[in-house]
Amino acid sequence: MALYHYTTFWSPDGTHNPTHYLPEAGRVTVYGFLGVELFFMISGFVIGMSSWGKRLGDYAVSRVARLYPAYWACIAITLACTTLVPVRGGWVPVYDTFTWVDVGINLTMLQDPLGHPSVDNVYWTLWVELRFYLLWALVVGRGVTYRRAVLFCVAWMTASVLAVQLDHPAITMLTVPAYAGYFCAGILLYLVRRFGGSPLLWAMLAFTWLINLHSLSERVQLNPGWHVPLWPAVLVVTLCYLVLIAVALGKADRFDWRWLTVAGALTYPYYLLHQRLGYIVIRHGLVDAGIPLEVLVPATMALMLLPAWLVHRFVERRFGPMLRAALHRGLQELRRDRPEERIDGGTSTPAIPHRVPVGRR
């Protein structure tokens, strides 16, 4: 994804076409946008796994505590950097003028449905992710089971196909037809992992792959705006399916994947920070320092690991548990149906329900 943004999605010097500097590499890196599709498949797998056996409130708390602390920190970092060292002129696909209302709405992660610009373009995927969480909450609220997970995928895939034909904005917004197949594929792969493969699960996985070809053909034409062959994109998505199928079947269990824990922890803040901060480094490195793009791009990709690690180390690991604990306390109050009353300068006592005299109800 970072390679795609750095080499084909903008003009590094503000003048030339993105492929001016790296024409051969651009033919390959243009398919980096497919990192989003892979991310959604992994998300379906992980959410299916992590929500199993959880109550709805616990599921909501885990999602909020996981997403928001790093997101808030990355908004602050991005705004600070782009204000102090702005990148303007030429083909720069980012919005530069924000009001305080825009920033405040961004903190909710709901800027897309409310019609406000995102502080960073990459945030669009978060709204897609939130819609998946909301839809999956319908299953979590009843309790996640094999049957309910399968029926959810059937219902969502059916609705997403109908949404394409109906072409109604509200229905499209709710069903996310362009990406529903990837989330469902991830959920189905987790079912394979937990219960083993079956003709039903393999047939449904094949169906999601076929349906995804439709949205993939449209995505290729939108990224980056010139003709891009479809077959490499199909190959990449197919390889993603095959790799995750191998993981679901346990074929990768013999390998030591402990390093993936660290890599996975950095992925989220890295994604949130890499585009706009990377543009600053590349533009000034190329225009002001004359560093070749062949050096700047990999160096910038490596450099972005530092702020991502800082956010993970000092924000996610510190404030994530704090937010989770605070939300759990609020959740317990909801489950008790009343908070504790505070009396005598801050001491607390359980609220005493008001007794209504018989005959006066």
Describe this structure in words.
GO terms for molecular function: acyltransferase activity, transferring groups other than amino-acyl groups. 69% of the residues lie in helices and 2% in strands. The chain is an all-alpha fold. A two-stranded antiparallel sheet has the order 1-2. Strand 1 and strand 2 form a beta hairpin. The protein is globular, with a radius of gyration of 23 Å. Residues 354-361 have low confidence and may be disordered.
Query: What is the share of helical residues?
Result: 55-70%
Our count of helices gives 15
Say what oligomer this is: single chain
Low-confidence stretches: 354-361
> Reading side by side through the largest sheet, how are the strands ordered?
1-2
Average pLDDT rating: 88
What does the main sheet amount to?
2 strands, antiparallel
Number of strands: 2
**Spatial shape:** globular
Distance separating the two termini:
63 Å
C-alpha Rg (nearest Å): 23 Å
Helix-and-strand structural type: mainly alpha
What series of H and E elements makes up the topology? HHHHHHHHHHHHHHHEE
Strand content: under 5%
GO molecular function, one term: acyltransferase activity, transferring groups other than amino-acyl groups
Domain Acyltransferase: 3-311
Region (Disordered): 338-361
Protein name: Peptidoglycan/LPS O-acetylase OafA/YrhL
At a glance:
By secondary structure, the protein is mainly α.
Write the layout of secondary structure elements.
Elements: H1 2-7, H2 23-29, H3 35-50, H4 56-84, H5 100-108, H6 111-114, H7 124-142, H8 146-166, H9 169-175, H10 180-195, H11 199-222, H12 231-248, H13 258-287, H14 293-303, H15 305-336, E1 340-343, E2 347-350
Antiparallel strand pairs: 1-2
Helix pairs in contact: 3-10, 4-7, 4-13, 4-15, 8-10, 8-11, 10-11, 10-12, 11-12, 13-14, 13-15
